């Protein structure tokens, strides 16, 4: 990555641009007008937070991507979440005051630090920020519920198809293509997140590729037949109980 892209001024300009794309960002922009928020430039593999470290700040990822991990029962790291630009990192540490997961960059990334305790000590009115945080927490709860459903009741192929569609949806929310994107995470990371073996993920991608649902070239993904992929996904198999009851 070139020096012009990784320079502090470019990173701050990128962070400022990101602030105006969401309600949380606009609230942070108001806070930033009274308190300088630190911009972190992080190389691939760098840690933004480590499991067990005291909570001091939240972070808004303004570019790049990251993964959250925690030690599994066998001692290996378990991937619990993938973050994209505009995601808020560190919310799971708010209650306990300690980070339960480690957050590691999947590529060069820029993050804006939100030091809640310092903001309060400085007398900054952050009531609007807390309202925005509650909305983000609500989305986090919904995300966790969807993940539990995915891991608890879906077959391997359903998990992988749902993951590819959901990742595309998240990119689309950020103004990018829902059908063509790069997997910034490794296949090992995907397998860990989905509770599958690496070989299962590789075979699943190959099957989708042969069937014409997805074109896979290294880490490049192109969803060629979204309808076919949706039929393989958990969202194509499960209908809400309330909807089924209403239809009956």
Briefly note the CATH topology name of the largest domain. Answer: Jelly Rolls
Class computed from helices, strands and strand pairing: alpha+beta
- Could you give the distance between the termini? 57 Å
Tally of separate helices = 10
Number of strands: 11
CATH C-level label of the largest domain: Mainly Beta
How would you describe what is shown here?
This protein has 248 residues and is an alpha+beta fold. It folds into 2 domains: 3-151, Jelly Rolls, CATH 2.60.120; 154-247, Arc Repressor Mutant, subunit A (Orthogonal Bundle), CATH 1.10.10. Helices cover 46% and strands 21% of the residues. The protein has helices at 3-6, 8-19, 23-32, 116-121, 127-153, 156-173, 187-194, 198-211, 226-232, 241-247; strands spanning 39-42, 47-49, 58-63, 65-71, 77-84, 88-89, 102-105, 109-114, 180-182, 214-217, 220-223. The strands form 3 sheets. It has a 4-stranded antiparallel β-sheet. Strand 4 and strand 5 form a beta hairpin. The termini are far apart.
Please outline what is shown here.
This protein is α+β, with helices and mostly antiparallel strands. It is built from 10 helices and 11 strands. It folds into 2 domains: 3-151, Jelly Rolls; 154-247, Arc Repressor Mutant, subunit A (Orthogonal Bundle).
